[in-house]
Request: fold
Amino acid sequence: MKMNVINKELAVKNIRINEISTSSVFLIGDTKVITCSSVSDTPSESPAGAPEVPLPPETRSR
Reply:
């Protein structure tokens, strides 16, 4: 598959992230290569996975 992308101006004023998972990628802008890797020292008999943990409530500065 060939893909032609023409980038225009990008302006980000505000970002709100309420939750994240154990494996997350958040990008703004351009990238040529994304390489995923993982290292774990947990024994194979241990349960894999963890519950999602919400971020603390947003506080507004005045």
